[in-house]
């Protein structure tokens, strides 16, 4: 989405005093990174607490388990930094594709275990996992006629459509694979990309890349986007297996291929903020557009950010406008409850464009059981909302996150490639 569900869908953990962004200056050559030197300015005000302290306060483990029914990096509390990459697969046969997935499995396990990549082996520091997670998804284009997979595509997987307020740039959309890399330091993202580029040489071609980070949760509570409002205050209950099976994971009643059970759909959106235009809007009007107080994050009819908006007591929108962002995104009715999904978004800063305007925004990341029932339904409710004048979705894509790697004998996509 755009800033979609901002203030209405929250990542599992928001830590106080999060550090800002230092540009990931390396990576796979030739990819347009949605980050820049301007991000260094955001780091200065938030560098007063260490990443280890944030882990202690937020419950984020130093080492996140790699094996499991579901991939890490979905329900994992958000790390400080993230990298998102769309790839095209260059493998020319089913066997080569299988080898690629097996190689990715091996390298991802090694890296998340904390083993230093080759470029760091001479360093004196001890290896550290850095709370690293690497999450792999597949795009609709992987299921063409190259690998004999066309009859095994997940039911709702397709190229992300352009919604009415979008201006999608083809070079920043879609891909055969998606990779989400999250860690407590930005160099870890770069090390992963360098390692995978080295180990999968000739089998993957980067299509687009976006490096991103979390802003501090000043003064407390949920972190903020560059629009100044708290980004996400309510998410589905990730501790409830019933809630997760209803809204997140692919289960047998979904009618998906057997190999997809335990997976989830990922929606990525690269959303630029027109910050100079937004900054001219009086704060009172900004609050009407969002439906929340800018300082506290509370709904306009509440006092605390976690107070639920009382829409039934305000049927005509006198307190919270009917076209406000939070009211459209999540009307909180029985009918719209099944359109909720998990948000795990990050900010980006790419410096300035050729016109001298700041190029910054949001890498929206959402996980769900069915993107048509959930993301697309919410997106249609937000069509031409007042906030749309100040943000522009430019890229991203729909992906299916593969089920987790169960044990040392398993590998990414094994169910898909072994049984088809």
Residue-averaged pLDDT: 87
Q: Indicate the overall shape.
A: globular
Radius of gyration, whole Å: 21 Å
Task: Report the total helices.
Answer: 10
Unreliable stretches = 1-57
Describe the sheet with the most strands. 9 strands, antiparallel
Order of helices and strands: HHEHEEHEHEHHHEEEHEH
Spatial gap, N to C terminus: 33 Å
DSSP summary, beta strand count: 9
As a percent range, the share of strand residues is: 15-25%
Instruction: Determine the fraction of residues in helical runs and give it as a percent range.
Output: 10-25%
Helical/strand content category: alpha+beta
Number of domains: 1
Outline the fold blueprint.
Elements: H1 39-44, H2 51-58, E1 81-89, H3 94-112, E2 133-138, E3 177-183, H4 186-199, E4 204-213, H5 241-247, E5 264-273, H6 275-278, H7 283-290, H8 325-329, E6 342-343, E7 346-352, E8 358-368, H9 372-381, E9 391-401, H10 414-419
Antiparallel strand pairs: 1-3, 1-4, 2-3, 2-9, 5-8, 5-9, 6-8, 7-8
Helix pairs in contact: 3-4
What does this structure look like?
Strands 1, 2, 3, 4, 5, 6, 7, 8 and 9 form a 9-stranded antiparallel β-sheet that branches. Helices cover 21% and strands 17% of the residues. The chain contains 10 helices and 9 strands. The N terminus is likely disordered. It has one domain.
């Amino acid at each position: 989405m755009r800033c979609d569900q901002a203030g209405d869908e929250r990542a599992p953990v928001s830590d106080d005093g999060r550090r800002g962004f230092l540009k990931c200056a390396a990576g796979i050559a030739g990819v347009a990174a949605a980050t820049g030197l301007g991000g260094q300015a955001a780091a200065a005000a938030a560098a007063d607490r260490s990443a280890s302290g944030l882990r202690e306060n937020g419950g984020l483990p130093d080492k996140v388990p790699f094996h499991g029914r579901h991939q890490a990096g979905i329900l994992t509390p958000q790390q400080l930094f993230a990298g998102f990459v769309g790839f095209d697969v260059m493998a020319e046969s089913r066997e080569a594709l299988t080898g690629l997935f097996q190689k990715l499995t091996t390298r991802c396990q090694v890296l998340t275990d904390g083993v230093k990549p080759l470029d760091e082996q001479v360093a004196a520091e001890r290896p550290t996992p850095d709370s690293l997670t690497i999450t792999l998804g597949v795009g609709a284009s992987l299921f063409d006629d190259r690998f004999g997979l066309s009859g095994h595509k997940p039911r709702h997987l397709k190229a992300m459509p352009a919604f009415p307020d979008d201006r999608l740039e083809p070079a920043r959309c879609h891909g055969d694979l998606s990779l989400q890399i999250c860690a407590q330091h930005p160099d870890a993202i770069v090390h992963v990309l360098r390692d995978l580029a080295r180990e999968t040489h000739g089998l993957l071609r980067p299509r687009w890349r976006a490096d991103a980070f979390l802003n501090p949760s000043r003064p407390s509570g949920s972190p903020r986007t560059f629009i100044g409002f708290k980004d996400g205050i309510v998410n589905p209950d990730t501790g409830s297996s019933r809630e997760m099976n209803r809204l997140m994971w692919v289960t047998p009643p979904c009618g998906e291929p057997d190999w997809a059970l335990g997976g989830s759909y990922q929606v990525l959106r690269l959303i630029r903020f027109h910050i100079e235009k937004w900054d001219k809007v009086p704060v009172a009007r900004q609050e009407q557009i969002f439906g929340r107080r800018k300082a506290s994050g509370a709904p306009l009819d509440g006092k605390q950010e976690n107070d639920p908006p009382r829409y039934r007591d305000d049927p005509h929108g006198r307190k919270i406008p009917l076209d406000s962002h939070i009211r459209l995104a999540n009307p909180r009715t029985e009918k719209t409850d099944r359109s909720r999904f998990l948000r795990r978004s990050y900010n980006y800063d790419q410096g300035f464009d050729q016109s001298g305007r700041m190029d910054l925004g949001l890498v929206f990341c959402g996980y769900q059981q069915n993107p048509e029932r959930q993301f697309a339904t919410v997106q249609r409710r937000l069509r031409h909302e007042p906030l749309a004048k100040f943000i522009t979705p430019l890229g991203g894509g729909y992906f299916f996150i593969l089920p987790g790697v169960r044990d040392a004998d398993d590998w990414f996509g094994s169910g898909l490639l072994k049984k088809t």
